[in-house]
Design a protein that fits this description.
- The structure holds three protein chains of three kinds.
- Chain A is mainly beta.
- Chain A is built from three helices and eight strands, in the order ααββββαββββ.
- Chain A has a domain of 83 residues: OB fold (Dihydrolipoamide Acetyltransferase, E2P), CATH 2.40.50.
- In chain A, a hairpin with a 5-residue loop joins β1 and β2.
- Chain B is α/β, with parallel strands linked by helices.
- Chain B folds into two domains: 141 residues, Thiolase/Chalcone synthase (Peroxisomal Thiolase, Chain A, domain 1, 3-Layer(aba) Sandwich), CATH 3.40.47; 241 residues, Peroxisomal Thiolase, Chain A, domain 1 (3-Layer(aba) Sandwich).
- In chain B, strands 3-2-4-7-1-8-11-10-9 form a nine-stranded mixed beta sheet, sandwiched between helices.
- In chain B, α1 crosses α2 and α3 packs across α13.
- In chain B, 64% of the residues are buried.
- Chain C is built from eleven helices and twelve strands.
- In chain C, the strands form three sheets. A five-stranded mixed beta sheet of chain C has the order 1-7-6-4-5, sandwiched between helices.
- In chain C, α3 links the parallel β4 and β5.
- The longest helix of chain C has 23 residues.
- Classes of the chains: A mainly beta, B alpha/beta, C alpha/beta.
- Chains in contact: A-B, A-C.
Chain lengths: 144, 388, 341
């Protein structure tokens, strides 16, 4: 079955757990996710880590209907039904895709402010995979 | 570089074909293509074979081409399975054209096959998700429909496209498909019904999504200067183009167009020395209704952001300025992933020859046709321009 | 330079289930003094709660995670029986690989154990900064009374060298062997109790009272010297009972009460209670924290609040901020989300 291996997943933990972008020493572009060859200048560059703030805005979104999610999320679907996924444009200018959690319907709109949170993504082979999700920034004080 | 002609096409019905095995399906399409060569062709003349197949369900994954040539009586020919997600057989067509153009062979077979309905529903979701970015899109819970939904939301936000416009694509294609005996779904629908159907990935409903289909298609090509030996009605490959875009939609500058389509189309138009307004009929990749609207713009049938206008004016209906998806498109004709590309060629060849089964689906006087076949969310695209 | 608490943070999940839902389901809510309690979302667990509380604490303390030398995690409901969880938290907050980690488990005293050991770590000179996080979501079978008050929450403290917002004056601890009070054998999913109230009360009194008395004697203080007292709060009634036995007034322990809105947050409760108190505390205030863990043991800690507490007040979401952000669920959804059905 098509899946992402643990060693592959492990390599992306700096991005998934702590939002570490890799800044190209050649052209300054932050590569997030990390790449061998810079996404912008296409050089096999040297990169230095740069922690992203986790703050951003919804660029686009959709709501995945219950019953259609990828198999990694069938357990989640069983517990919690349909869920939103969004392209988030981060403060630093780059975009990432992630689930939106702890939301109300009215929070799902383009330009809505969101902040990154550390959550369970799914479980495979009894190993829990944690990663990045976003949560609407609301009345409760946003994380600094 | 040799010019290339199409001398025979064949396609099975697309649908839920539970009693046909993969090899049987492809053999059926191939035999029809062979028969379609009106002056006859010897099977041994086919020297190169390219078959598009995505491997859904995980049947014969390794050496698939060898299994197929065996069942077609083509053992001995050089054969290749091609996988570019939903553009697999479009790229198989391209490979066959390039083989003949290069002079390495005189006759080649291109085609595609997919069985999607013999896999349990729960597992077929795995396979549907393999053509998008696995690590980030899929692991955020994204589905194939979800990626196109992201494009739709942004397109609606930037250009004022409405859910009604998406539904219009569905209505048009269902209307065309209802007159296509080989279509998976042969029933007309209404705007109201389409809009009210269950959500799959907001804002896309069931009626915005193509079905899960089985099917096969085949195209026999040869050197243009030899075509009249085989048929009185050859159709010529006037131009082709192919390109890639970033796999992950979130890493694209603009999610309201598919760059691989734009580049592939431009290449094809240049090679064929025609412009978008010269196209008389087109089969475009409407895996989701929004994909058709975006295709209008990417292919240059209208300015960027104005796809909805073509629909409101009925310009893409049969009888309109630029009939799109007279076969019913992926939406109604069906989308057996590996077989769609050469299925589009099958339709355009029939349109250009004037040999479409039901006359109400025939675009009259069509001289130049275009096929547009995209893989996944636009990671790969191939465009062919065909001329009578 | 002195050593003490440099900053703190909490996390409480936003879902709540209230007393009325339990009464609808069971005809009663066997959780005295609990009005509603916090429930984890489907994508949360004790690790994810810890990470947010820890990020808050690090921000509050203005300590860069790369400077941490130790990360300690305390919980009775870690998702893994075997796997270093503090490693996950260490990475998620941005600590370097050069940290000493430890997972504290087995009882609801684990939070204060970890805090005291974190302070010892720095005091011994083994490192400059330590992150201690306690996070819990106790579980029991839906039919059992013991399940009724179980909630969820997390707290985190950054301790180390610098200008502490609070310093530890002293601590004392007691342990006695006590069987069958609140326990879970390793192969079981659900916490159990023999359900003998007088036995439970006797054990709690013996351990908690012993630690509190020893601490008060040691520091030469009186019970009334403490502006705030954080007592074990497995339900709303327990703190009153313990307070009476130790000479504390209601006004001293009420500010630390979270159980009425969060439920029993296991090993995190004493530290969330401490955080709530520090949210309000003024320079010069004294706080006594007493924890209890079944099996059995109790830590009592005397804490002095410094001038520095005023500097970063409001810099991170407070206990009250998290309490105010809530979404109610019904009992059926509760059962689903806790995988009880």
């Amino acid at each position: 079955m098509a899946h992402v291996s643990i060693p592959s997943y492990w390599k992306t933990l700096p991005q998934r757990y702590c939002l570490i972008g890799m800044k190209c020493k050649n052209c300054g572009t932050i590569n997030f996710p990390a790449r061998e060859i810079c996404i912008s200048c296409k050089q096999k560059s040297e990169f230095e880590p740069k922690k992203l703030s986790g703050r951003g805005k919804i660029y686009s979104y959709t709501i995945i209907a219950a019953g259609s999610a990828p198999p990694e999320f069938s357990e989640q679907e069983r517990l919690a039904g349909s869920f939103p996924v969004a392209i988030v444009e981060l403060e630093e200018g780059l975009r990432i895709v992630a689930q939106i959690t702890d939301y109300e319907e009215e929070d799902l709109k383009i330009e809505a402010e969101v902040e990154s949170v550390f959550r369970k993504l799914y479980e495979e082979d009894k190993i829990i995979r944690y990663g990045l999700k976003f949560r609407p920034v609301k009345k409760r004080k946003p994380l600094p | 570089m040799q010019k290339v002609a199409i001398i025979g096409v064949g396609q099975t019905r697309f649908g839920d074909l539970i009693d046909k095995k993969a090899e049987e399906l492809f053999a059926e399409a191939f035999l029809e293509a062979l028969n379609d060569v009106d002056k006859g062709i010897d099977i041994s003349e086919i020297q190169e074979v390219y078959i598009g197949n995505s491997g859904v369900g995980g049947g014969q994954l390794g050496n698939f081409s060898s299994l197929m040539t065996d069942h077609l009586g083509l053992t001995g020919a050089a054969a290749l399975r091609i996988e570019n997600a939903c553009a697999s057989s479009g790229f198989a067509m391209r490979a066959a054209v390039l083989a003949v153009s290069s002079g390495v062979c005189d006759v080649a077979l291109a085609g595609g096959e997919e069985k999607m309905n013999d896999t349990p529903r729960k597992r077929v979701r795995y396979w549907l998700g393999i053509s998008g970015d696995m690590e980030w899109e899929r692991l955020s819970g994204m589905t194939f429909a979800g990626v196109f939904a992201l494009m739709a939301i942004r397109h609606m936000h930037e250009y004022g496209t409405k859910r009604e416009h998406l539904a219009m694509v569905s209505v048009k294609n269902h209307k065309n498909g209802a007159s296509n005996p080989k279509a998976h779904l042969q029933r007309e629908t209404t705007l109201e019904r389409a809009l009210a159907s269950p959500m799959v990935a907001y804002p896309l409903t069931l009626f915005d999504c193509c079905p899960i289909s089985d099917g096969a298609s085949a195209v026999i090509v040869c050197r243009a200067d030899l075509a009249k030996k085989y048929t009185d009605t050859p159709v010529y490959v006037a131009g082709h183009g192919a390109s890639t875009d970033r796999l992950s939609v979130f890493q694209r500058e603009d999610v309201t167009s598919i760059n691989s389509s734009i580049v592939a189309a431009r290449q094809a138009f240049k090679m064929a020395s025609v412009k978008p307004e010269d196209i008389d009929v087109a089969e475009v990749h409407d895996c989701f209704t929004i994909a058709e609207i975006i295709a209008y713009e990417d292919l240059g049938f209208c300015p960027k952001g104005k796809g909805w206008k073509l629909l409101e004016e009925g310009q893409t209906e049969i009888g309109g300025k630029i009939p799109v998806n007279p076969s019913g498109g992926l939406k109604s004709k069906g989308h057996p992933v590996g077989a769609t590309g050469t299925g589009q060629i099958y339709e355009i060849v029939n349109q250009l020859r004037g040999s479409v089964e039901k006359k109400n689906r025939q675009v009259s006087g069509a001289e130049i046709g275009l096929t547009h076949n995209t893989g996944g969310s636009g990671g790969t695209t191939v465009v062919h321009i065909l001329k009578r | 330079m002195s050593i003490g608490i440099l900053g703190y943070g909490v996390y409480i999940p936003r879902y709540r289930i209230n007393r009325a839902e339990y009464i609808k389901a069971w005809g009663q809510f066997a959780a005295a003094g609990v009005e509603e309690k916090a429930v984890l979302g489907f994508d949360e667990d004790s690790i994810t709660m810890s990470v947010e509380a820890s990020r808050n604490a690090l921000n509050h303390a203005e300590v860069d995670a790369s400077k941490l030398n130790a990360v300690y995690f305390a919980s009775t409901s870690s998702p893994y029986a075997e796997k270093l969880v503090s490693s996950t938290i260490a990475m998620a907050v941005g600590a370097s690989p050069r940290v000493s980690v430890a997972d504290f488990t087995s009882s609801t005293m684990a939070g204060t154990s970890a805090l005291l050991m974190g302070l010892d770590f720095v005091a011994s000179g083994r490192g400059h900064f330590a992150l201690i996080t306690a996070s819990d979501c106790p579980y029991a079978d839906p039919g059992e009374f013991i399940e009724h008050p179980f909630g969820a929450g997390a707290a985190a403290f950054v301790v180390g060298e610098g200008a502490p917002i609070a310093t530890i004056e002293n601590s004392d601890s007691t342990t006695i062997e006590a069987l069958g009070e609140r326990f879970r054998k390793y192969e079981e999913k659900s916490i159990e109790t023999l359900g003998i109230p007088s036995y439970t009360e006797a054990v709690i009194m013996k351990t908690v009272t012993s630690s509190v008395k020893a601490l008060i004697d040691k520091t030469g203080r009186k019970p009334s010297d403490f502006n705030f007292v954080v007592l074990p709060q497995f339900d709303g009634r327990m703190p009153s009972t313990i307070a009476r036995m130790n000479g504390f007034e209601e006004t001293q322990f009420t500010p630390s009460m979270i159980v009425s809105q969060v439920g029993d947050a296991g090993a995190a409760s004493p530290l969330i209670g401490l955080a709530k108190v520090l949210d309000e505390a003024k320079p010069g205030n004294r706080v006594l924290v007493a924890s209890y863990g079944a099996g059995a043991g109790s830590d009592a800690v005397s804490i002095n609040v410094n001038e520095e507490i005023m500097k970063r007040k409001g810099a991170v979401p407070s206990v009250k901020d998290y309490l105010a952000d809530k979404k109610y669920i019904d009992y059926i959804y509760y059962l689903k989300i806790k995988k009880m059905i």
